[in-house]
Each structure stands twice: as C-alpha cells, then as structure tokens.
Amino acid sequence: MSIQHKLSTWDELLETARKNTSARRVRRPGQSPSTAPIPSSLHKLLPDTAAPVLIYRDTNSWCPFCERVWFALEEKEIPFETEFIDLSNKPKWYTDLVPTTLVPAVKIEGNLVYESKDILLALEERFKEHPLLPENPEENAIARQWIEDAETSGFRDIAYKFLREPISDANELANLQAAFEAKLDQLEQTLGKYPGSFFVSTFSLVDIMYSAHLDRLAANLPVYRGYHIKGNPRFPRLNAWFEAINQRPAYHRVRSDSITNNLLLRRRFGSQPVENLSSLNLADSQAIEYRAEAAERLSDNREAAIADILKNSGVQGLAVNGDITPVKEAIDLHLRLLAEYLINGDKIVLPWGRIGGKDNADPTVAAVGAITLAYLRNRICAPRDMSAGAATAFRAAVDKVLTSLY
C-alpha cells in the first residue's frame, strides 16, 4: 500500500471533479437507484414549489418509452420529479394507479397520463414554451400523423425481430433484413419531405418518437447482426439525422452509451454477439467535462460501488482466512487511482505495472485491482449511473489503468 500517500483523498477528488463538471445527481439513500439525475430546469421552480410534472419510470433508465418522455421534458425545460418503478416487482399502488401497469406514466399537475405518445402530446398541449410541434397548421397535422405512424407502421416490430430473434436459417434472416431495410427506406424518404435534417422543418416530437429506438438499433445491430445503419451509404438522410440529434444537449442527458445498449441486449434477451462490443468514442473519452463527471460519480458513490464489488465481483475469494479488510482496502485504492486518472489523465504517473521494466505490485493487491476494474467496466450503466459521455470516459480510463498497471 506504499502508493496511497501519493493519491488524493476522496474528498479532494470529489472537490476537484465538481470544479470541472456541472453534472449533479440527488442522493436516494437506501433506494434503487441510489441517485437520480437532477432536471436541468429545476432551477426555474420557486422555493418550496412542487414540480408540475411527476414521471414514473424504470429504475434502470433503460426503457426507450421512458426515454422519450424524459427527452421531451428536457427539451421543453419543464421541471419534473421522478418516481422509479421496479419493473420486476411493481408495487401494487402503481398497478392500481395505471390501467396498463406499464411505464412511463406521468402526473401533470396531478392529472394522470400514460402511454408515451399520449404523454408527449399532453405535455405539448399543457406547456407551450419551447414547442415541439410546428406552428404551420398543415405541417402540424403531418407531424401528428407521423407520430401515429411511428407506433403503427410496424417499423419497431420488424426492427427488433431482426435484431433479437435467434434465427439459424440464412434465408429467413435475409428476408427479415430485407423487410427491415424496406422500413428504413420509408424513413429515409420521409426525412426528405422537408428541408433540414429532422423529420419536419424543425426538431419535433416526431424525432423524439424515433430517437431511442434508432439509437439502440444503430448500437446493437453491428454487434449482434453485423449490420450497420450509421455509415451506410444507403441511408444518407438517416445518417444526417443522427448527426443532428447528436447536437442537442438534451439528447446527451437522456441517452444510453453504445456499450450499455450492447450489454443490455445480452443480459435481458440472451442475444449472442457476432462482433466485438461497440468501440469507444474518442472525443467523449477525452472530454474533461465527461471525465470529471465520471470521477464525480465514482467519488460521490464510492461506498455503494465498493459494496457492489465485494458482493458481486467474486473478489472476496482472494480474502485470506475470511478477512476481507485488505481486499476492501485494495478496492478502495484502485477506485481512487481510477478517479485520479480520470481527473488528471496522463499527467499522473501510474504506479506498479512494468514501469522501468519492473513489476512492483503485490500479487494479491494486483489481482483485486484487476477484478475490480474489469467488473466495473461492464457494470456501470448509462444513464442510470452517469451520462453516456461520462460512461464512455469511465470505460476508456479503466482500460488505460488496467493496461498500465498489469
């Protein structure tokens, strides 16, 4: 443990991280998840005033239908509160409240609305600021029809069948791909109806209806089907749409990173990848605001992280005579090292490893570190634990520290 004195304390790391990022979360002691994002518009509320919207959503923040509503709330700058619902054990009060028993649902100034499409339209009707439907009556009617089409065209059913279903017959898979591409061709044509990169002349609810699903498909299809939407010359307008969506700050608050999407498909649906997981975005991995956010999340939530690692990573098997104290200290050490690297990057000299051709690491401490970092790399989740950009920076830093140390 001779390097501990060279590392910053957790309090020092947290203070430095918070100077370099505005991202914050509210603590939820004893609850799951243990923190929740703070709406960017919460400052608009007067003191002791309740937010006008309460959203009921999934605890893991994976649900694409919940993401639609969150996206709209952030775009329209509507202050809101969040109530998380455990989808594997929904409370009776929720199933009694919401006829479908599904998420999302919202209360808008006390009035219940459910189904994501209906919620989006209700928010648009009640909150006129930052409109997400065109003013022009004809274009408004077209946008509303395309919102309906996003639910009824069969695009989503065909897309996820192509992505998820285990298919061994090459002809059947080819037919599914052809049907999926036909739906993408329709979207490509629709995107050409108005100038600009969005479905109608400005960013709208139509874009929000498609964003979560297209984002997941673009991330997962290359890994699980070897098929690419992004970079595919067949779909230039869709690729321009992805680029335009990526310029919206609200999108970065609500989206998942590609690796979260990749891992989720394997965990929830048992899908088997045919390619490596998505590569990390270099720009996000180097951006100080994302690196600092990742360090802030790790520093602020370290106790929960250490408890999770001890419980679920298998690292307790390295304890001698059942004494986990040295293991816990080694976990803490490596997490502080990771936070230090996230904040300072290559300005710090990473200890141990093969620096100077000599391996100075205690074998047990090194093993604990390797297990800890490898476990965390695929354990963190965006946006449940941090934003997608911060998750990317976090994973890249883990890779760097692992490579440098061992």
Automatic annotation (TrEMBL):
<dbReference type="Pfam" id="PF13409">
    <property type="entry name" value="GST_N_2"/>
</dbReference>
<dbReference type="InterPro" id="IPR004045">
    <property type="entry name" value="Glutathione_S-Trfase_N"/>
</dbReference>
<feature type="region of interest" description="Disordered">
    <location>
        <begin position="21"/>
        <end position="41"/>
    </location>
</feature>
<dbReference type="Pfam" id="PF13410">
    <property type="entry name" value="GST_C_2"/>
</dbReference>
<protein>
    <submittedName>
        <fullName>Glutathione S-transferase family protein</fullName>
    </submittedName>
</protein>
<feature type="domain" description="GST C-terminal">
    <location>
        <begin position="136"/>
        <end position="269"/>
    </location>
</feature>
<dbReference type="InterPro" id="IPR036249">
    <property type="entry name" value="Thioredoxin-like_sf"/>
</dbReference>
<feature type="domain" description="GST N-terminal">
    <location>
        <begin position="53"/>
        <end position="131"/>
    </location>
</feature>
<dbReference type="InterPro" id="IPR050983">
    <property type="entry name" value="GST_Omega/HSP26"/>
</dbReference>
<dbReference type="InterPro" id="IPR010987">
    <property type="entry name" value="Glutathione-S-Trfase_C-like"/>
</dbReference>
<dbReference type="InterPro" id="IPR009050">
    <property type="entry name" value="Globin-like_sf"/>
</dbReference>
<dbReference type="InterPro" id="IPR040079">
    <property type="entry name" value="Glutathione_S-Trfase"/>
</dbReference>
<dbReference type="InterPro" id="IPR036282">
    <property type="entry name" value="Glutathione-S-Trfase_C_sf"/>
</dbReference>
